[in-house]
Amino acid sequence: MDKSNGVTRRGFLTSVGVGVAAAAAGSRLEAGEQRVEVAEPGEMAKVALTVNGRRHRLLVEPRWSLLFVLRERLGLTGTKAGCERGECGACTVLVDGVSRYSCMTLALEAQDQEITTLEGLMRGEELGPVQQAFLEHDAYQCGYCTPGQIVAAEGLLRVEPDPSVDAIRHGMSGNLCRCGTYANIQKAVLRAAELRGGGPGGAR
Amino acid sequence: MTDDALYYVDAPLPETPEPSGEPRPWAKTEVVGTPRPRVDGYERLSGTAVYPSDLVLPGMLYGAILRCPHPHARVRSVDAAAAEALPGVVAVLTGASPEAKDVRWGYGGGVTTALFDPVCRHEGEAVAAVAAETPYQARDALAAIRVDYEVLPFVADERDALSAGAPKVHESGNRVGEPTAYQRGDVAAGFAAADVVVERSFRTACELHTPLELHGCVARWDGDRLTLWESTQGVFSVQAGAARALGLPLAKVRVIGHYLGGGFGSKLQPGKYTVVAALLARKAARPVKLFLSREETFLCSGNRPPSNVTVKIGAKKDGTLTAIELTGLGTGGAYPAGGTSLLDWLARDLYTCSNVRTETTDVFINAGPARPMRAPGHPQGAWALEQTMDDLAERLGMSPVDLRLGNVPRVSQTRGGQPFTTTGLAECIREGAKAFGWEEALHGDRSREPARESGEGSVRRGVGMAACLWIGGAGGPPSTVLVKLFADGSVNLNMGASDIGTGTKSVMAMVVAEELGVDPDAIQIENADTATTQFATPSGGSKTVPTESPTVRRAALAVKDELFRLAAEQLGVPKRDLELRDGALVSKRDPTKTVPVTGLEGLRRQGVLVGVGYRGPNPEGKVINPFGAQFCEVEVDTRTGEVRILRFVAAHDSGRVLNRMTFDNQVFGGITMGIGLGATEQRILDRGQTGKMVNANWHDYKLPTMLDVPPVMTSVPIDRPDPEANVTGAKGLGEPVTIPTAAAFANAVYHATGVRVTDSPIDPPTLCRLLAERSKEGATP
User: How many helices (H) and strands (E) does chain A have?
Assistant: First the structure.
């Protein structure tokens, strides 16, 4: 099997799969050397995924998206499927701390990277600071884009712990909300910055 | 369309008994009306809420539907042999399959076809379906199905549908029916009596709902009993539709819809996908999850139809309206789906005018059928009417605010002059204008201090406003709700209605809390499950709060009455002497006579008190409508056509505000969706060459993002309980908040540039072109 083909394809998918939030924040497109065996479609490949600090070893088809594996194989349905083509951001997760559309990321690409989903932002059974801020400011209606919004906000705040309103508007513009709760999301992200401790080196 | 049609249930509505007694309106409230985070916030924010699309059942397969790629075609043959042989494929259905061939699908207007009909009248019509071990394998199988299509000529634009020689969508032609006409008074005389007459034609592009959660369900059979977990606004509507299509008794179909990721009217009814999922699951003898792809939802899960409207208004010099005439053309797509539904309602009922004539023509085209979308017909009607009113105000030299204030109706003229219970329109306009600073903004220096850097003098500011009412918003029977109070004082609320994201559960918990003095967050809510809750109409049409909240209040009052009875017995005081305070029943005359709820012996013996609430009828001979007015300020770069919306103020009269926090959120959401109609959204069909939709995805079909909405939005509730409407005094809110938005925006763009943009959306290319045409004519913007 030609390994270089796989790498090239992954490189392409990695760059198109990055959310606007990450792009705005100066993303790290090259997430280090990836050592994944290239497999043919239909063939199952081994992958080890580290999700919310837990390591999962499973067999996947090379074409399976990280989104599919998270939702349908690992039961982490906090991550939502809105378009499966990198347009809405409902599937946003953090990969090594950077916001990524998990629908545009192959599960194989995420090998050896730290994946954080909505569930990983909880503090035990309690809502984490960004989630708490969304609650306080009613920054959601139907709640389906919300996990992606929250994770994107977390990604933004990790890069910019004390963002301006303008930075929030740009940083969150890769996440669609059809209920139209943007006004409240904007306020919630400001509040989340406060709750996370703000400032450089704020709580993570 | 009558108010009843707003229930969107394609089955007879059950009657609920009239409730006894008439509880007094709340004089003051402790919980109701306060801003309060949602009671299901934890579930929605932590990820523990299980939406139908989240469900994974043991042995579950994934379904997918093969869709016609042509706008009009006849299926000659379907060869699924290769698909059936693919790995992971468990079931395949085509129009010839014994499991599917006799299944009928009902479109609107009584039209039925086969589930997989050989004639595909729109792109995206269902042709075959598969179930496989993974969604990837299901898609592989679709690709392996060979369909021989006879491609037929198509018509993809309603403006072409009645042309001579236009291809016929149905054998009977392209007219859905006779034009719908309405008339009162004498418009010719009205125009003759006018000092000023304005007339203009408008168009709004077709808009798509695209809720974030895809349309679909999980279907599972237990023998001959079917359970559907569907992303729906109305579980009972899905139950009725699925039972009918599958020939099952209602009792054998259970529909569960605890959560859904948005609907906006597109999930009021079951889809073909519902029935297909059930058939696949039966054939495979395994549960099937079938959710559409995003692209499919652009083609076959409804839309807000495009509208073509000409409005003519006559007025006296003092602004008195003498005549309104509206003609409209629209399309609900390939089947009867209300293509011009309610397009003329605002022209008929928003302003006082004795002479009104409207006529609307609904035609077929080869495109996906419409479904009701947030305030059907109204935003399109407002786009035309409210821009024409703006025009008229200018011609009369009047302020747009004053022109409207001079024509506020007290009665519903189109319903034979029945009075409105409350008409907050004047307050909406006045208080909204005040909060906006309308006078200063209107007369301010419009080129001064642009909010952003730009070429000198090229940035113009403008303000605009528009008003509305919504035909619905009254709610009404049927509804049955149970409230249970347990011996330990905890409370359970059981209702059939869905919470589509508007905060229904939270508001209802607050109503229970108001009556029973418990913490709303401590109330356990069961809802939207046909097996465990009572019949409710789908959540939509701004009728959920006015339908369910009075019912919930009555159920809570029934429990309270029972508490009083038990306490009266125990304390030896008359019932009417008792009140419920801080979890205890206390004698008003002798406060030493008191017993905590948990100390009631009768309650301890019974274990639970069950209160049943029914929704009483609305008052006879009166009309209950919500009203609103919105104000907008924009900044237009006249070189690039870019429009930045600086702020929005929205004043809405929806009766009593039950939860200020979710109220404001609805208002902002309505504005955001209205900005989509006015500025960014349009379905584009390849009218000339292929008839296909060319932007069936969110990259090319532009929803507003956070950058497209103003950083400042202000909600000004006209918080006046409507005691005649129902026992909570609330009217609907979800629809009116999106009705005037696009028109207010267009009026602001006109004020900024002097260019009247008649066709939505007002995007930079359109505006640039119009500005260029205008400067060619020699005028300076």
Answer: 7, 5
CB contact B423 to A (< 8 Å): no
**Is it the case that residue B20 has pLDDT exceeding 80?**
no
Domain contains B126: yes
CATH classification of the domain holding B226: 3.30.365.10
> For B703, phi and psi rounded to 5 degrees?
-80, 150
| Interior angle at CA B189, CA B188 and CA B191, nearest 5 | 65
Provide the 3-class DSSP secondary structure of residue B557. Answer: helix
Res B438: pLDDT: 96
pTM listed for this prediction: 0.94
The answer to whether residues B679 and B765 touch, using CB atoms and an 8 Å cutoff, is no
Assess if residue B41 is contained within a domain. no
Report yes or no on A201 lying in a domain: no
Over the stretch B478-491, which tens digit does the pLDDT of each residue have?
A: 999 999 999 999 99
Interface touch B37/A185, C-beta < 8 Å: no
pLDDT in tens, A176-196: 999 999 999 999 999 999 999
Which strand (E) or helix (H) includes residue B586? Answer: strand B584-587
Phi, psi of A104 (to 5 degrees): -105, 15
- Beta pairing class for B225-230 and B253-256: parallel
Q: What is the pLDDT of residue A38?
A: 55
CB B132 within 8 A of CB B110: no
- Give the pLDDT band of residue B21 (cuts 50, 70, 90): confident
- Residue numbers in B near A45 (CB within 8 A): none
Q: Containing H/E element for B633?
A: strand B627-637
The predicted structure's pLDDT at residue A202: 42
Structural domain span for residue B492? 3-30+475-614
Q: Which of B135, B697, B707 sits opposite A173 (nearest CB)?
A: B707
Contacts of B293 in chain A (CB under 8 A): 84
Q: Which of A164, A182, A186 to mutate to test the interface with B (most CBs of B within 10 A)?
A: A182
The answer to whether the beta carbons of residues B196 and B317 sit under 8 Å apart is: yes
CB B774 within 8 A of CB B754: yes
- How would residue A33 be classed by pLDDT, with cut points 50, 70 and 90? low
B209 vs A contacts (CB less than 8 Å): 178
- Does A183 contact chain B (CB < 8 Å)? yes
Q: Which domain holds residue A143?
A: 121-195
A145 near A176, Cβ under 8 Å? yes
Tell if the CB–CB gap between A145 and B661 is shorter than 8 Å.
Answer: no
Distances in Å between the Cα of A143 and the Cα atoms of A104, B389, B501, B650 are 22, 38, 7, 24
Number of domains comprising chain A? 2
Residues B57, B229: Cα–Cα separation, whole Å: 11
Residue A19 has pLDDT above 70, yes or no: no
User: What percentage of chain B carries pLDDT values higher than 70?
Assistant: 97
Of A24, A187, A163, A11, the closest CA to residue A99 belongs to A24
Q: Amino acid identity of B746?
A: A
Angle at B684 between CA B681 and CA B686, to 5 degrees: 175
Gap from B689 CA to chain A (nearest CA, Å): 26
B418 touches chain A (CB under 8 A): no
Q: List CB contacts (< 8 A) between B664 and chain A.
A: 138
User: Which residue carries 């709004």 as its tokens?
Assistant: B204
Tokens coding B243 = 């039972």
The pLDDT, as a whole number, for residue B22 is 81
- Residue among B749, B590, B687 at smallest CA distance from B163: B687
Among the three residues A120, A141, A170, which one is the final residue of a domain in this structure?
A120
